[in-house]
């Protein structure tokens, strides 16, 4: 197929169908890429002392958004010191926020680190650490030292943490496949899922489908679920970069009367399914049960997330060494007489592979791929399971 291709979608003027999801991969015959230590964008860190090293001495990219959840169980505070960095001083930052476990929200208490030897002590055992780079001049990575202080004798909360990265996926609790980092010895559970992206594409937004099964004896108002995404300096010149903004909350209010509570269903129910849109692939999901009778053993939830395109057509590329995705009008009805064209280009040494993951076009509507290099056309795209 070569290293450049055009994906075309056309629809007739008779009946409309639903869209599609087409994955494209950068294919190389000899791929010897090895991810160096400390190059992972985001993750879960549990411990009392150590270093968070990210691309130390190496170039990071424009538009990175990496989230680490750092928990020092039983600690009163955590001291952070930026040991080494070569940031673009004006525009690239490490920001740190804390979580209020009583209310299950991320506090607006952002602390910034963007100069070597900058240090602060933060009064909390759980930190949300975000590294953001802007769209202009990239710099080199960093080393952030952390050291916990103090000892809480009565620990009330147990944190269940997970980090995800990718253009789409699914996770649930409880799960044999999805790894949850369990930290702390308290009886009340707080669930946090952090999503990172090495290269944030401005053509995509994220759709999250949340399914929830409340425990018996509780109602929806006994549970707090919220999605946060970070502001960048370019979004609001007067704001603190890295501040986490609550984009969605479910239920919308905690005021309704819960005195009349029926037994909840034993399986997920459409009544408890909600769909949320988030502007970027960098987000945090925070869930906490406010139900005194639930210690977490009955908690059940699942969410699916995928990044979808805003536009009919454009120029796309794989994100770093990952695949790319054209998710156009997926699960939605497209219009009559649409004519969309996406241009995809990878490095000349590589080729492109395509896999059709979802397809609900009407008869007569058409999706095909044409190689810019060779003129080869693929009219019957290979369908793969997702």
Structure write-up:
Keywords: Disulfide bond, Repeat. Residues 41-149, 312-386 form the CUB domain. It comes from Orchesella dallaii. InterPro entries: CUB_dom, Sperma_CUB_dom_sf. It holds the Pfam family CUB. It is built from no helices and 28 strands. The chain is mostly beta strands and 386 residues long. The protein has 2 domains: 4-32 and 321-378, no CATH class; 43-251 and 266-308, Jelly Rolls (Sandwich), CATH 2.60.120.290. The strands form 6 sheets. Strands 3, 5, 7, 8, 9 and 11 form a 6-stranded mixed sheet that branches. A hairpin with a 5-residue loop joins strand 27 and strand 28. It is globular and about 70 Å long.
In short:
By secondary structure, the protein is mainly β. It has strands at residues 4-10, 18-27, 43-46, 49-59, 65-71, 77-86, 93-100, 105-106, 111-113, 119-122, 126-132, 140-149, 157-165, 168-173, 181-183, 188-196, 204-213, 223-230, 244-250, 273-278, 283-289, 300-309, 314-316, 324-333, 339-345, 351-359, 366-371, 377-378.
How is the topology of this model organized?
Layout: E1 4-10, E2 18-27, E3 43-46, E4 49-59, E5 65-71, E6 77-86, E7 93-100, E8 105-106, E9 111-113, E10 119-122, E11 126-132, E12 140-149, E13 157-165, E14 168-173, E15 181-183, E16 188-196, E17 204-213, E18 223-230, E19 244-250, E20 273-278, E21 283-289, E22 300-309, E23 314-316, E24 324-333, E25 339-345, E26 351-359, E27 366-371, E28 377-378
């Amino acid at each position: 197929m070569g290293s450049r291709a055009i994906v075309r979608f056309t629809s007739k003027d008779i009946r409309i169908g639903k869209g599609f999801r087409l994955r494209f991969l950068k294919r190389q015959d000899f791929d010897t890429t090895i991810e160096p230590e400390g190059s992972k964008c985001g993750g879960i860190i549990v411990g009392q002392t150590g270093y968070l090293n990210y691309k130390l001495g190496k170039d990071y990219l424009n538009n990175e958004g990496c989230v680490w959840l750092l928990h020092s169980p039983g600690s009163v505070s955590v001291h952070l010191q930026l040991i080494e960095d070569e940031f673009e001083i004006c525009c690239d930052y490490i920001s740190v926020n804390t979580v209020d476990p009583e209310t299950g929200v991320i506090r607006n208490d952002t602390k910034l680190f963007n100069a070597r030897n900058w240090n602060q002590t933060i009064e909390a055992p759980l930190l949300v650490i975000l590294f953001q780079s802007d769209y202009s001049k990239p710099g080199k990575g960093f080393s952030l030292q952390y050291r916990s202080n103090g000892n809480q004798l009565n620990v009330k909360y147990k944190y269940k943490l997970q980090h995800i990265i990718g253009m789409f996926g699914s996770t649930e609790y409880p799960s044999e496949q999805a790894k949850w980092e369990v930290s702390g010895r308290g009886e009340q559970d707080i669930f946090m899922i952090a999503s990172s992206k090495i290269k944030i594409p401005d053509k995509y937004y994220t759709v999250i489908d949340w399914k929830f099964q409340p425990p018996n004896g509780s109602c929806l108002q006994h549970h707090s679920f919220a999605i946060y995404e970070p502001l960048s300096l370019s979004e609001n010149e007067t704001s603190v970069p890295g501040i986490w903004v609550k984009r969605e909350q479910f239920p919308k209010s905690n005021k309704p009367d819960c005195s009349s509570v029926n037994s909840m269903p034993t399986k997920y129910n459409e009544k408890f399914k909600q769909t949320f849109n988030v502007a970027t692939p960098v987000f945090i999901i925070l869930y906490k049960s406010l139900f005194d009778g639930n210690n977490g053993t009955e908690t059940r939830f699942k969410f699916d997330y995928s990044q979808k395109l805003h536009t009919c057509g454009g120029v796309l590329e794989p994100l770093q060494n990952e695949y790319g995705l054209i998710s156009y009008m997926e699960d939605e009805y497209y219009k009559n007489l649409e004519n969309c064209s996406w241009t995809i280009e990878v490095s000349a040494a590589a080729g492109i592979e395509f896999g059709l993951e979802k397809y609900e076009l009407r008869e007569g509507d058409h999706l095909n791929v044409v190689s810019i290099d060779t003129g080869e056309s693929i009219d019957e795209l290979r369908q793969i399971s997702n």
